[in-house]
Amino acid sequence: MKKRILSLAISLVVAVTMIAGSTCMTFADDKVEAKVTVRSQMGGGYLHGLETVTVSSDLAEKYGFTDNVPQSENVSALDALVKSHEMVFGDDFSSETVSEYLVGNSSGYMSKVYGYETFGSGFLLNGGFPNDGTESSWGGYNGTTVSTQKVVTGDVVDFYVYNDEVNYGDCLGYVDMAQKVIAGSRVKAKLSGTSVMSAYLYKDAAAMKAAAKPLAGVKAGFVNISSGSTETIDAVSDENGNLAFTAPSGTGTYYITACNDESTPVIMNPVRFTVVADFGSASLAAASYTYSGKAKTPSVTVKDKEGISLVKGRDYTVSYKNNTKVGTASATVKGTGIYSFSKVYKFRINPPKTKLIKVSALGGKKIKVSWKKQKTQTSGYQIRYSSHKNMSGSKKVTIKKNSITWKNIWRVGKGRKYVQIRTYKTVDGTRYYSSWSAAKTVKVK
After folding, report:
1. How many Å apart are CA 315 and CA 277, to the nearest integer?
2. For residue 221, which of 1, 131, 159, 232 is within the disulfide window of CB 3.0 to 4.6 Å?
3. Is 398 exposed, middle or buried (0-12, 13-18, 19+ CB in 10 A)?
4. How does pLDDT run across 343-389, given as a tens digit for each residue?
5. d(Cα 327, Cα 350) in Å, to the nearest integer?
6. Dihedral angle over CA of 46, 121, 215, 185, nearest 10
7. Contact 170/162 with Cβ under 8 angstroms?
């Protein structure tokens, strides 16, 4: 119990000296500034947007407070606390009205924050218990206060009022989930928490999180960074802290936090995640190839629904099947990481070409066609002839044996004829053709 009381004292003490009733105050001419993310919460909700703001090292002094951080060197957490009151109350918060909103008592505690009288308030720095890094004889680490703790650009300062002001049972909540999720997909998350009262036991934020225990029966919510409002998710964590929810349908950056609950008071601690579009389309580098004895592995271009190209190896993998011999081959594209799609794309492997050796007229409207034998992955040949160079209106003749190398064709008609040949192979009842050979011409009488 002594440790609990000590922890509360350490986390709440602010060592603020108020110069009440003073009519003459001086401020140092030199000051510094820091860009700090300030997050202030009370009653299970944020009091303002979770903004990164510029805090001046003389801000606390302007409202009648004195901190123990040299004004010419650093900004104090007290300066940030005063800044948070400006953010909440605007022009209503002034040096004349400060006592209506922020008061430090003679023992060095804040007795009023955000206009609420309480000793159950504290702050965290970058997700951890503010301390000077030295071990305390009472156990844990010696804490700093808002008046002794300096803050620098890039720091995140959380000011809070305990939701449980009787037993101080609040936990700092954690949400563990994938950093990127697909729009509209089901997402798994785990909620856990570490007692804020016991935060003094941990040197830094990492150690504090490592000590977290599952939060059961707790909801999560999406935090609007601009306004600080929270939209609760209609799902509750199980006994192991597991929770599933549907990702937002819109792409972009979101923040999620474990939320305060009547039975489990939680200090909110938003984590960022990104919603990306699902798989949109994929295309192969080519739809057909010529047999060469080697496996064909056409490259694949994969894009999401917004037309953004995905990265092979990171976002998807490609595997091939039946991609060596003549026939229909396939490329299976599977999503990896945040993507879970699986799509099959087919392409053809056609037989190798052959070439015409000679085309001659035999008289009587007959021609003789001879060609180079092609037995590799070939079932037979097809010849076409036409009176037109572009082969329009052509007629075809099929040779069903690949061992044949010539053919007499009757009744081709008089005049100049253009002749071509191609191979074919039959696989599972389907014919696969090579490309046509170069044409030869013959004049038929």
Report:
1. 12
2. 232
3. exposed
4. 999 999 999 999 999 999 998 899 999 999 999 999 999 999 999 99
5. 7
6. 20
7. yes
